[in-house]
Amino acid sequence: MNRPILAILLSTLFSSASAQDTLLKQWASAVVTRSSEYGADSWAAKQVLGEPNTMTYGDNGTAWASATQNGVAQSITVSFKEPVYASAVLVRETFGNGFVTRIFAIDTAGALHQVWAGQDKTQPNYTVNFIATFPKTTYLVKAVKVVIDPNHNMSAYEEIDAIQLHGTK
């Protein structure tokens, strides 16, 4: 085989592989479902969509909060524009930090897979990007479900400003 042609083929092969392995970080684009929400506009589930817009710690209507301050576990499920092989989920916490208990990935067939469970050790008084990492999924992820403990801080609502999915194509 001609060397220049071989070089072009190898270059194309490696650039395609690296493009597929490029980390894609995307903010939630749609709310699939939520267990509850405090309001129809302020503190609504739709407040988690897109890039963060709550810059100060505290009770802000620009973040999602469940309908009640305390009680049973709450959750929000959001989807993303492009399915990816996921490796992390970022949850921007803006009030009552330390409340994420489980994260589920939802594949393109709609099946739920628990990808993270544990103790969220983020501290209050600051907006925090809690990042749950896990081994890269072997299936494409189109949505995630974040489960929170509303009893984590009995004197505060637990609030989420944004959710981001990390993965490769």
TrEMBL record:
Keyword Metal-binding among record annotations: no
Keyword Ligase: no
Signal peptide limits: 1-19
Domain (Pappalysin-1 SD scarf) ranges: 18-168
Keyword set, alphabetical order: Signal
Protein's UniProt name: Pappalysin-1 SD scarf domain-containing protein
Organism expressing this protein natively: Deinococcus rubellus
